[in-house]
Design goal:
alpha/beta, globular, 2 domains, UDP-N-acetylmuramoyl-L-alanine:D-glutamate ligase, 6-stranded mixed β-sheet, about 40% helix, 15 helices
């Protein structure tokens, strides 16, 4: 099987759509020999911060000498980003070989799996073939009925910041969403949580108590910021000092979650030296999360797609670029709470460019542009994200800021465009 045939298999029409439940992925994995049973996991659920926290933990575990798998979603530029071992995405030939193994198993199933279930099963098989010591496993959606929840009790279950998103599936209150996320908590594991809203904290404490699971909650008062600039930040947590290249105060809280997870793993016998923790945090990379891609003009990329994320972006723009003129390059999905997102972002905007994310669920740029006019600021419509980035750069003065925000489905296209442009300008 070629990589092209593998991608055709994964993206086949028959797999499309979301159908909650674990029966299909369990059957598929069983037909593959249950590769997940030969792996250890750190399982991560939450609304915001899952990917950043997963990247930090994978970086730390890799620095500690463990062969470390990382499973995240969605991807930005290449499908292979979704599954990595020791920081390297799955090679085309290996992914094609995995899909070839999947094909007869899928064909034998009466109830066909979804695309995400296929990808999850493919990742489990590949991680097993690569003999990973540990896999940092990010939940796709929710937790309880997510395909990743087919695993047995993980070495540690991590709950990052919980907010209102996917309410049509997970429920309309923080408590309802928290119960779905808490579905990854299983007897025999331990749990670590981001500092949550009171109603979320109550659900998580109750869930852990019911299952007999020790719960560690991040102590915000133990986080002491030291230095902060567009080049990164330093801080102390429980008296130890760390460097972190990721920007924003929320990343210090995510880092504290990672540090508490390390402590929980150590208590269960994992060998993770202090030097590995410091190196892992200092070296972590997680694209499209308030990522600075260019200077003069400044170009920031953030894939945040809910009101919480939008408020964080607005706070970070005020934090790192006070007094500068900011153009927001915005693209959103029609099923997101974009009115609340844009209300938060408008506090920092001098002008807007509306684009259409590369997703069938995208709000068309023309419709978004009409909505943006209500803020009383200049609005330009340029449907293609890459062309919108080119337009923004052409009209921005060196001291100005462009911030692309609103959807990971737009972020990938912009990141690809800017990387290619940078390569051309540098002669590569």
């Amino acid at each position: 099987m070629t990589i092209e045939q593998a991608m055709e298999l994964i993206h086949g029409v028959e797999w499309r759509g979301s159908r909650p439940g674990l029966s299909r992925v369990r059957e598929l994995l069983h037909r593959l020999g249950d590769p997940q049973d030969g792996l250890q996991f750190v399982h991560i659920a939450g609304t915001n911060g899952k990917g950043s926290t997963a990247a930090m933990l994978a970086s730390i575990l890799r620095a500690a000498g463990y062969t470390t798998g990382l499973f995240t979603s969605p991807y930005l530029e290449r499908f292979a980003e979704r599954m990595q071992v020791n920081g390297a995405p799955v090679p085309d030939a290996e992914f094609a070989a995995v899909c070839q193994t999947l094909q007869p198993c899928i064909a034998a199933m009466d109830d066909p799996p979804t695309e995400f279930e296929l990808v999850t099963a493919a990742a489990m098989l590949w991680f097993r073939r690569r003999r990973c010591d540990v896999v940092v496993l990010e939940v796709g959606l929710g937790g309880r009925l997510d395909a990743t929840n087919v695993i047995a009790a993980p070495a540690c279950a991590v709950i990052t910041n919980i907010g209102l998103d996917h309410t049509e599936i997970l429920g309309g209150t923080l408590a309802q969403i928290a119960r779905e996320k808490a579905g990854i908590l299983k007897p025999g594991t331990c749990a670590v949580s981001y500092p949550q809203a009171p109603e979320v904290r109550s659900v998580l404490r109750e869930s852990c108590a019911q299952r007999g699971i020790p719960l560690t909650e991040v102590d915000v008062s133990a986080i002491v910021p030291l230095t902060d600039s567009v080049d990164g930040q330093t801080f102390t947590y429980r008296g130890a000092e760390y460097a972190l290249p990721l920007l924003g105060a929320h990343q210090l809280r995510n880092a504290a979650v990672a540090l508490e997870t390390v402590a929980a793993l150590r208590a269960r016998g994992w060998r993770i030296p202090d030097a590995a923790v410091h190196a892992g945090l200092a070296q972590v990379r997680w694209p499209a999360r308030f990522e600075l891609l260019r200077r003069a003009p400044w170009f920031v990329l953030d894939g945040g797609h809910n009101p919480q994320c939008a408020q964080t972006v607005a706070d970070n723009l005020a934090r790192y670029f006070p007094g500068r003129r900011i153009t927001l390059l915005v693209g959103v999905l029609a099923d997101k709470d974009y009115p609340a997102m844009l209300a938060a972002l408008d506090t920092q905007a001098a002008a807007y460019i509306a684009a259409t994310p590369r997703s069938p669920r995208a709000l068309p740029a023309a419709e978004l542009g009409e909505y943006l006019k209500r803020f009383g600021k200049p609005v330009t419509v340029c449907a293609d994200p890459a062309q919108a980035a080119e337009l923004a750069l052409a009209h921005a003065a060196p001291e100005e800021v462009i911030c692309a925000v609103g959807s990971l489905y737009m972020a990938g296209a912009i990141r690809t465009y800017l990387r290619r442009e940078n390569d051309e300008n540098s002669g590569h």
